Task: structure prediction
Amino acid sequence: MSWLKNIPTPAQAYLKDRTLDEVECIIADFPGVARGKAVPASKFARQSSFYLPNSIYMQTLTGAWAEAAGPEGWIEPDMTLVPDMSTTTAAPWTGDWTLQVIHDAMNRDGSPVPMAPRNVLKRVVGLFNDMGLTPVVAPEMEFFLVAKNLDPAQAISPMMGRSGRPAAARQAYSMSAVDEYGPVIDDIYDFAEAQGFEIDGITQEGGAGQVEINLRHGDPVKLADEVFFFKRLIREAALKHDCYATFMAKPIAEEPGSAMHIHHSFLDSDGDNIFVGPQGGETDAFYHVIAGMQTHLPSVIAMLAPYVNSYRRYVKDHAAPINLEWARDNRTTGIRIPLSDPEARRVENRLAGMDCNPYLGIAASLACCYLGLEDQDRPDKQYKGDAYDGEEAIPRDLYSALDLFDSSQRLHDVLHPEFARVYSIVKRTEYSEFLQVISPWEREHLLMNV
Result:
């Protein structure tokens, strides 16, 4: 067990005076679900890698298979899973002493598997590094705590608070509203502390039982790892208190949806923010990044809003953007420049839903920034006023979003053409599965009226 001496300090502290029982060897699939193997600690210590079939990236959310195999046909070759020991963290909700380790998916020749979401993000970050830049991101996580829902035919309802009443809507930033589900929040903090994660803040959002957690800015891959881990720990904390945590983009009708806003900045080789000029003014690079987002975000909406439910979030006047306008300190625009000191100047992408895979959502957003810096275009004029009064400028359904995604060869080259090919096939297969389901709305309004 000598390898335990080199794992992150929080993981060592978690195991102090305890015997490690099990290690979960995990990777993220397209939806962002943890896939992998749980192995005894003694076996993990003896092996440097593990194996999983590459077909996990060809499976839809429902478990069906998409026809996305390559020229070799459907042979399900194994990927080699190589542990990234810097990601080692506790799984504090388990009944025994368990660690989680994120693995990188590699081909047998040692090259990265192009479909693996973590590899997609690493590829994009590498392109910035080749430019001499270090990308910095800060994700915001919104989610709902809801009552247990054992029947998919029933609408989702808010969880019951400690007062015995359902969580109330329209209580944004209310401390009393957060106190209603304080025990869940306490366990989220405890699990995060055990895993070594730093929460920058927790607030009540506008929806009934809707919460936002902010993370400190940092390396994109590290922050995507944390969001990946956080989704799991939040679900586990909720289950301890007989409720669900959901990251659906729009779980409850008439309530706002849940976003994963992504803040971006970029450091040069001297560690300086490239958005800041000599006198603290805004640089050309600042405007190039905004222009890149305005130009290319429509083509990656299929990654930022990956499900049919995702598009229910883009509703006028419901705290979600409907266009690609940009403005300073204006939450109605899709691209927002938050108030900050010059050194902390950043660009916020407000289009990503919380249902996106964090690796793919951050990679897609960064890819737009990269192409903006490459093209050196200028954005439209800053929007003045309520951007909900402007023209809609983003796809309104998954099928349209996938058509835009498929037509953007430049983005495919940034993300990786093989990833783009497989992702599109899987998402189109999911959409076809959705079309086979008859909804309550259709039964109510079409059964006797058409």
User: Anything to note?
Assistant: The radius of gyration is 22 Å. The chain has two domains: 2-112, 125-444. Residues 87 and 94 are 18 Å apart (CA to CA).
